[in-house]
Batch of 2 targets.
Target 1
Amino acid sequence: MTKFTLRALTAAFLTLTASLAFADEDPDNTFRLGAYAVFFHTSAGYLAGPYIPPGENLSATVKNVQTPYLAYLRKLSTHFTFELAFGVPPLTKAYGKGPATLAGTVPFNGQQLLTSRWLAPTALLEYVFFDDSHALRPYIGAGVNYSMFYDRNITSAGEAIIGGPTRVELSNSVGPAVTGGLTYRLPKHWSLMASYSWARVTSHLHAITTDIVRTDAISFGPTTFVAAVGYSF
Amino acid sequence: MFTMHRYWSAAFAAVLLTACGSDSTTSTVNTSTAHGTLVENPPLRIASLNAASLAAQLSANASGAQLLQLTGAPACGVDFYYIKFWTVGGSGETTQSSGALMVPTGAAPTCSGSRPIVLYAHGTQSDKTVNIADPTNTSNSEGILVAAMYAAQGYIVVAPNYAGYDISTLGYHPFLDAAQQSGEMMDTLTAARMALPQTMSSATSDSGKLFITGYSEGGHVAMATLRAMEAAGQTVTASAPESGPYALEAFGDAIFFGSVDIGSTEFSPLLTTSYQHAYGNIYKATSDIYSATYATGIDTLLPSATPIDTLFATGKLPETALFDSTTPVVTVPGNPTLSAVLTGALAVPSDPTNPDTPLFDLGFGSPYLINNDYRVSYALDAASNPDGAVPTPAAGVPLAAVAPTQTLRLAFYKNDMRNGNWAPASPTLLCGGDQDPTVFFSVNTETMAAFWSGLPAGLITVLDVNATPAGPFAQIQAAFQQAGAAQLAFYMSAAGGSLSLAQAEELLIEGYHASVEPFCALGARTFFSQF
C-alpha cells in the first residue's frame, strides 16, 4: 500500500512537472537576481585582552539582514550545475551582549558596537533532480563560502565601551556551505527560484585602541533564504 | 558572449561600489619623540566608574572598605585614562613612559567643569608591570588610593608609572634620580594636559591649580618636581611630599652606619643601577659593591616582572641582610681613634636601650648583599665629610656634606633635597609617621623641616600622623592611631593568629610605612582644600 502510494505520487509529480516543461532545451548560462534574507546564528566568545573588567563576560550578537542576491550559474550537465552566488554586501551590525552597563556607567547590553560590510561569495556544485524537460526542478548543493569583512566601523557607543577610537579587524573566513532549493522555469529563458542555504563563517576580531588589542572569536552559522528570478542565455 | 560580459560587469560593479569606504581608525599617533609629547591622542580609557560603582568596588574587600571610610564616599565618578608619552632616561636616553590621567565625572558641580590637578608620584614598586592607570588590577592599590582620595572628590589626577616600568623599554628605573624623575613628572603633566581636552571626559577641564604630592619614593619625586617646576617658573599651588627620603645623604649615612631600614635590599640595587646610569662612576663591576652571592645580574634585577618574594626565595636577593654580620675592622692609617670609632659604628647594632635595635639587626646576616670593603669606603667618606644631620643633628641647620668623594655618597648628595639650598616658594605639607622603619621620619622629614625652619611661618607644615592629635589634622592623627591599635588588637585576637604583644608589634612595624600612606594622602587632600 505504501509502495503503491509513493509510486502514484511520484508518477503524478513527474506528470505535472513534465506538463509544465517547454520543448526548448535549457541554455548553459543563467544569471539570477533576487533577495537574500540572512539569519545570523552568532556565537561569540567573551572579549579578551588587557583591561577587560574581570567577570564582566562581554560578548556580541549580530542582527539579521536582507540584501540583494546575485548569482551566475553554469550548467555542467543535465544534473550538475555550478553556482557562484553573491549577496550585495550588507551592512552588518553587532550589538553588545552582557551586562546592562560597565561599572555602572557605560551602557553595554543592546548597544550597537560596530558595523561592517560583509562580502561573501559562495561557490556551489549543485545536483539538479529530473531532466531538462521538467519545469520544476529541485536541487541540492555543497561548496565553499569565502567571507571578507570591510568598512569596519566602531560606533560611539562602541568607543565608549572599548575606551576610545578603535580600529577593528575581522579575519577572512573560508568555510563549507550547503544549499537546497527549487527552480521553476518560465517561458522565454526566465525562471524563478527559491533556496535555503547554510554556511560556516569563523572570524577573529581584533579591536585595536591606541596599541591595546582586544580579541574575540566569532562564529556565524548564517542561514539564508533566497528568492530570485533567473535569466538563461 | 557579449551579453555574458555585460551581466558580469554589472554584478561586479554592484559589489565594488558597495566596497567603497574605509575602516575606522584608532587614535592619532604623534611621531615626535620630544620629551613631554603625548604618543596617542586621545588616550585609551581603561575604565569609567561612576561614584556608586567605585564605592561598590572599594567595599568589596576589607582594605577597600577601610580606605572608603577614610576617603569618604565618592562624590564623583572617575574615568581612568592610560597615557603614553616621551621622556628622558637617567643618562639622557629618549624613552617612552606611561601613566594615568584620572578625570572626575558626574553631575555634581565639583565633578566637572574647571577642576584642579593633583600631580602624583607613586612609591617604590618592585613589580615592573604595574600600571597605576589600571583599576581592573586589584594589586594596583596605589592607583585605587589616589582615585578614591583625589579623583572621586573632584581632583584631576596625573601620575606616571615611571621610566623603566610598564611599557618603558629603558631597562632600568632612574630611582631617586631627582633630575630625571622631576623631568618625567613634568613630561607626564604636559602629556596629560594635551590629552584632557580630547578625552571622553572633556566636560572636565584644567582649572590651572596644580598640587603635587607623592609617597615614599614619590615623596622625594614630589619634592624634586616642586623644585624643578619652580626653577622653570611654573606655578605650583601647593605640595605635599609624604614619607620621602629627602635628606638622601643623611639617610644613606644612617643606613651604612647600621640603621638598616626595612626594604633596603630592594632599594639598594635600584639605587646603584640608577646612579650608575646617571653618573657612570658608581662601580666598574657590580662586585665592587655586591657580594659574590648576588653580584651577577643584580644591575638588571629590578624592577622585575617576577614577584619580589620569588626573588628572595630563589636567592636573587637577600630578604633583609644588607650587610655582612661579620662586621669589618676599620684601619685608618695613623688614626687609631677614628679606626676604633668607625669599627664600632659599623658593628651590628646592640644597644639594648634602643627599641629599634632588633629591627636594625635584621639588616645583618650571611649571605649578605653589600660587601664590607664597600661599606668601609662609604664610612670613611662620611667620617671625612660628615653630614649635618647624621649621626647626631648638628646645632642649627642640618646641612648636607659639602663635598663627599665616595661615588655613591656623592650621588646621594646630588639628589639630597638640601643640596643647592633650595626652599619651597609655595605652601608645603611634609607628612609622615615618626615610627617609620622604611623611610626614617627623623632623618628625612624632620631634617628638612629643620633645614627650612627659617622660612616664613605657614610655608612649611609638618604632619606626623603618630603625634598627639592636635591642630587642623587632629582627626587624621587620631584615626591613624586608632587604626594602629585596632590592627594590633586584631593580630592578638584568635582571628589574627593569637600573637603575643611583641609579635603583634613586630608585624605592625613591618607594615607601618604602608599604613601611613592613606592617612598622609588624606592630610594632603585636607591641606590642598584650603587653596
Note: The longest strand of chain B covers residues 77-88.
Target 2
Amino acid sequence: MKKSILLVDDEPHVIRVLRLMLEREGYEVASANDGNEALEKMAARRPDVMVSDIQMAGMDGRELCRTVRSRYPDETFPVFVMTSMTASQEREWVRELVNVEFLEKPLSPRQLIARLTTYFATPENPHA
Amino acid sequence: MKNNRIGLILVVSSLAVIALVVTLMLQRQHAEQAEQLRVQGLGSVRALAALPASVLLPQPDGANQSGVLGSVLAQRDHPGFAYAVISAQDGRSLAEVASPGTIVPPAAPLDLAGADERSVAPGQNARAIREFRAPLASADARLQLRIGYFEPQGLLDLKDLPFYALIALAVFLLVPLIYIVIKREMAPLAALGEQLKTLGAAQAQPNTALVAGQDADQDVRGLAGKLNRYLDHTSARIRELEQDSIASMASGRLLEYGSNKMQAVLQCLPDGLLVLDPAGEVTFATGKIEPLLGVPVAEVLSQPVEAWCRDPELRAMLARFRGAGLDARSQMTIEFNPLGVPGKRLWATAQALTGHSMAYGTLVVLRDATREHLARQAGNDFVAHVAHELKSPLNVIGMYGEMLADVGNDDAAVRVEAINVIQDEVERMTSLVNNLLNVSKLEMGSMRPERHRVKLDDLLRDAWQQARSRADAKGIRLDLQVARELAAVSVDKDMFRIALNNLLNNAIKYNQQGGSVTLSAEEGDSDVVIAVRDSGIGMTPEDRERVTEKFFRVRETGEEQRGGHGLGLYLSNQIVELHHGRLTIDSELGHGSVFSIHLKKMPALAEGGQVL
C-alpha cells in the first residue's frame, strides 16, 4: 500500500516540486497552504508522514505541530518541519514534541526522499 | 595735649566697661546662688517635715539615739549649712544640729500651714542667715523644723578669676588698637586744628597784626592747601572704598550669573545628570531625570538611593561607586529598561568626579537609547529578514534545479516550468540585492544624481509598463493617468526609476486581489506632482510617520505576509530628496494610501535643447 504524505507550505513552487518528485517515487501526496487547511485534510485522513514549513501565514508550522500532537495523541506519525530559521528557540519547541524532526532549508527533494526511505525501512518506527 | 585726653578717655571708658561686665556677672552669679539655696533649703525642709516627729527627734530608749535629723543634717549637705532645729511652740529646741561657731537664733512663731522662709540679719552670727521652716507632723504639740543656711556672699569666686582676667585683657588690648587707628585717621585733622588755633591767636593780638599781616596770609594759604590735600586724600579714600565695594558686588554678581548659567546649561542637556556625594547620596539632579527614569526629581534629591531607584541594574552600579574603592577610578556604562517608563531603553554611564586631587563623588549620565536600541533591533531583524528573503528563492531554485536534473529529460513541460520559475526567482533576488546595494551607495555618498532634462510622461509610462506584469500576477488593476503634454523635469533617470518602481511595488505588494493602483501626474504652477494611489491595506498615523525610516516595516496584522524588507520607501524618499523634491504620504488604515512626489518644473526649453 502506498504511503501517504501531507505537504504543508504557503509557497506553491515548493509544493509543486515536492509533489512531482514524491509521486514519482510512489508516494501518495496531499497538500495544504497553511495549518488550518492541513488540519482539515487530516480530519478526513491521517497521513503516514507530514512535511510542513514553519513560517506560514495563518496557522504556522509550530502551532500546527502542537495542535496535531494534542488533537491526536495516539497518532505518532512523523512530522518533518522545514525552516531556514535555525535559531535555538526553534530547536527547543521541536524537541518538546514527539517524533518531530527538522529539515534544513534550502531543502533538497532528494534528501527528503532519502530520509523517508530510511524512515519507512525501519519497522520499529510508527507508521513504517 | 588733645591726643593725651583722648587716650585718657579711652583708658577710663575701658575700665568702666570692664567694671560693668564684672558687676553684671557677679550679680548674675549671686542670683543663681540664692536661687540654688532656696531650692535646696525648701526641698530639705519639706522632705524632713513630712516625716513623723518621733523619727526626727532622738528617743531616750536608745533605738533612735541621735534622731534622723541628726543623722541626715550632720552630713552638712550644703557648704553654706548653718543649723537645723526642731523647736517646740514655746521656743525650746528639742533637737539641734549646727555647724561649728554658729549660734542658732530664737524661733519665730509659725502660723503657716506649709513651708516658709525668713531672713535672719547678722547679729549673733557674722553673716546673714536664710532660714527655711515648716510645721512638723506631730500629735502632741505644734513643733516646727527650721533649717538655716548662710546667705551667699556674692564675692568673686576664685575659680572664675582666669575667665574675668581674660575678658579684661581682651578689652585692654583692644583699647590701644582703636586708639592707634583713630589717631591715624584723625592726624591730618588734628594738624589742621592746631594751625587754625595758631592763626586765631595771631589775629587776636592787634599789635602784631600789621607786622604779621604777610605771615598770616601765608598761613591761611598754607592752611587752605592742607585742607584741600586732606579733602583730596579723604575723597580718594572714599572713592577707593566705593570701588572696592563695587568690585566686590560685581564679582559676586558675576559668580551668581556664572553659576546660574552653568545650571541652565546642565538643565538644557538632552541627557539626564545625577551627581552623588562620596557617601552615595544624590546631591544634584537635572529635570531630564524624570522623563527618563519616571521618578520625580524632588524624590531623587530627598530620598536615599534605595528608596527611589527601582531599577536593580542602576542601583548595583551606584552601589559600586559608593565610597572610594578601586571602581571609583574607572568608568562604567550599563544599558537597561527603566521600570518607571515602559518601552524606554537607557544608557547610564557612571564616572568618578575628581579634580584638583579631590574626589567630589560620582557623575552619572543617563541617555535615552531607545532609538538606537530600536535601530539595532531593526538592523538585526533586517539581517534575519534578508537572509530569509534570500534563502526562499534559493530554496525554490535548488528544488527546481534537482527536478530539472531528475525529471526534465523525460518531460518537456516540466523543463519549461522549471526554467521560468528559476528565472523569476533570480529576478526577485536581484531586486533585493540591487536595493541593498543602492542603499549602501546612498549612505556612502557615492550615489550622486546626474540630472538631465527628462520628459516625464515617457518615464512614467515605462515604469507603468514594468509594473504591469507584477500587478496582473496578483490580480490588481494598474491604471495610468498621465497627460502627454507634461512639463519636463530635471532628474537622474535611472535613480528616479528606482524610486518609482519601489512606490509601485509597494502599492501592489500591500494590496489585495481585485484592488487597484493608479499612477498619475498633475502639473501645478511651479511643480509637478506624481502620485501612486492604491486601494490597499493603508497605515496607522504612527506607521505613516515612520514608514520612510530605514528598515522600518509596517506591522502586518492580516493573514498575508507581504515580504517587504524595509528599504523600498527609504530609498524612494532619499532619491526624491536628492532631487530637491519631497515625498508626501496620505494614508488611512484599511482605506489605502497615496504616495506623492513633488518636483520643481523646469523652465521652458530653449530651441535645440536636449531632452532625454
Note: The helical segments of chain A are 12-24, 35-44, 61-71, 88-96, 109-121.
